[in-house]
Amino acid sequence: MHQFPIVEFLLDAGAAVDDETYDHVWDFTFRQKCTDQQWIALSRIRRSKGRNWIGDQNFPLIHLIVFGISSKPLIEELEENPTAVYQTDAKGRTALDWATARAQSGDMELLIQYGSDVNTMDHSGRTTVLHAVDSHNYEALKMVLEAGANTNPVIPEGLHRSSPLTSASFGGLTEMVDLLLEHGARINTPNPEGRAALHTTIIRNNHEILRSLIKKCDGTCLRDLKLLPVIAQHADEQTRAILESSGQFTEI
Predict the structure, then answer these.
(1) Which of 102, 128, 149 is the last residue of a domain?
(2) Of 113, 180, 188, 214, which sits most exposed with the smallest number of CB within 10 A?
(3) Distance CA 207, CA 213 (A)
């Protein structure tokens, strides 16, 4: 997403924009994950299909309010149409999912107050908690967890999603990792590639997160994860020292 010169080169050379890339770029921008410079740089991809992506999403009015496309106050829509909190778009996302992804705490608070479900899952397996993790906003994650969001969602077979804890570990989001652990996130939940939070943390040699995870993991957990090949291939000296100094590691 950030290799703009390469993208420009490929487009100039006649490379076609596939549907997945087109959708990903639009989704990326609507989740407010790009700067003004990135918005401009990605414009060729957004315009490449000659389609109306916003129209394709079948956004209900409440979603358009969250995006700022509609000027109607959110509280007004909720009072007039309280069931709007359950409405989803073409991706299966609620207004709360989008507000969480965009870390719009005021909108999140209102939507939760009016009964929005904090444990929804869109068609790709992305949950409300995962939207919060992807926002990189600690307060957004804290809000949905305190409202009862599940840190260990069951992802249907065939959907390629990591657990919220693995995603936070991959992103190096130490405070989020600690918060998820406080709310019962399981360490040994693998993604479809067989990797859990500890695998990701060792591969990336994130020592602070590793210490947090080790405190919550016993020898059985470590054995189940089959960490030795990952340690042998990726662990730096400090990562090895942290593992070797833990009583849990010696039980492998």
Answers:
(1) 149
(2) 113
(3) 10
**CATH code of the domain covering residue 210:** 1.25.40.20
Range of the domain at 230: 151-252
- Residues 174 and 125 placed together within one structural domain of the fold: no
State how far the Cα of 151 lies from the Cα of 140, in Å rounded to an integer. 14
Q: What is the pLDDT of residues 37-75, one digit of tens each?
A: 887 778 878 877 777 889 999 999 999 999 999 999 999
Residues 120 and 175 in one domain: no
Exposure b/e, 25-37, CB count within 10 A at least 16 = b: bbbbbbbeebeee
What tokens does 38 get?
A: 């990135």
How far is residue 165 CA from its own chain's centroid? Answer: 10
**C-beta of residue 132 within 8 angstroms of C-beta of residue 168:** no
Tell me the whole-structure pTM to 2 decimals: 0.90
